[in-house]
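Lab notebook, bench 4. Still working through the backlog of constructs that have no structural model yet. Next entry is a single chain of 178 residues. Request: give me the structure tokens for it.
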Amino acid sequence: MASHSRLGQQIAEVTTTLNRIGAEYALVGGLALAPYKIIRATQDVDLLVDASRADDIDNELLSLGYQCIHRSTDAANYQRGSERVDLLYANRPIARRLLTAATTLHTSLGELRVISKEGLIGFKLQGWVNNPRRTQDIEDIRALLRANAGQLDMLEVRSYFQLFEHEALLDELLTQLG
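Model written out:
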């Protein structure tokens, strides 16, 4: 359980810092699954952040002792010992809309801004399309579809599969789930 509390402290530190500088953020990735009824072990913090604040966020994370191990216009990765923070920059209209629409939810790690379950499916799909070896993303999508059946905006979900030209995959997943 020590890693859970370490992760909780890490999230609290990073989100407190982002709140202090007024940088918009939302939890994405493995930790964002929990409020949507899916528990999965993960050791890193994945956040969608306002791309226009990338330099400010970079400065703050560096001041917290993180090292930037990669940074591009789309994403950045930071490491501090065994702690990792991965940022996705909301540049495109869909990502900006999802960031703005993120809601504050009660999680086991406290009150956190979390992306919508539909948006999370979209980002998981993008992760898998970018790297098909990331099969955990497909498993996470399957789990989100199963755990939230009847509560998803399926037109929005389908729009992400259309965007990445994988509508047949969505149909296959839905068929498997019955």
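Notes after review: The beta strands are 25-28, 44-50, 67-71, 75-80, 83-90, 103-107, 110-114. Residues 2-21 form the longest helix (20 residues). Flag for follow-up if needed.
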